[in-house]
Amino acid sequence: MESHPDAPPTRLWTVAVALLILIAGMLALGEFVLQGYVMLSSRALLAGGVAPPPEQAGQFFATLPGLLLAGTLSAAWIGLVVLVCGALSPTPFPVRLGLLPGRLGPLAWIVVALGGLAVNQAVDATFHLTGFGRGPVLDEMMRALAGARGPALGLALLVIGVLSATCEELFFRGYLQRRLVARLGAAPGILLTALAFGLVHWDVHHSLFAFVFGLFLGWASYVADSTWPAIVAHAINNTTSVLALVLGLDDGATSALTQGFLLIASVAVIALAIAWLARRAARADAEGVDRTTLLRSGA
Known about the structure:
By secondary structure, the chain is mainly alpha-helical. The chain is built from 13 helices and no strands.
């Protein structure tokens, strides 16, 4: 992604403020809003009794309704921050968030999606083979999602598969990374965005996966000069994960031999995806294809 020669340098303090506001809002949602909802909706409290203990809120969010409520509010908050950041920018909204077709063509969306699924499988197999596990937070989420059926399954696919993935990518790869890359360069911008993406997942296991996943999506978004491949890949990854749980394809009982094979196969797919994207990006560079620069210059 190239900057227009007449464009002012990116201000890092606005990026830092946006990230701090995002994190503060997500913490407030968990600490006050969501726990307050559980307490105020308690039948005992509404009947004039004693408020439920804080632990009850944690138990509620380990259920499917609690998970979907938390996911919806979190995605809505991220989406609101993205809209405000985009609206305050003098750069046209589609350019600011990378909502352009991209310079690698629609086939890149499929390649990035396959690579993202491979990253997911590779990290999961590594956790399994090393005995690191998925951690209590991810295990609770998976148990809750495994019980999704009918309308609840459709809502889970909408909230986790589409809404959360889209809002997260719009902020992290669309807003945050593009500004950091414009000011610091590709490698620091992609790395710092992936670190921030991991940080907001709050749990060490989930954060490690998000960091690795963010590195791949960040690089893919950068070479494509578009956020769309990351959005599509993230949505497909989340949707596939939910469906795999519901169909019993991810019960954690796979043997070490099978996990080893899955790890090797996943790494091979990742390597092929990276090689294809790099080759296509080199061809686009040679052809001088840069949609962002063309749009900014009014061509």
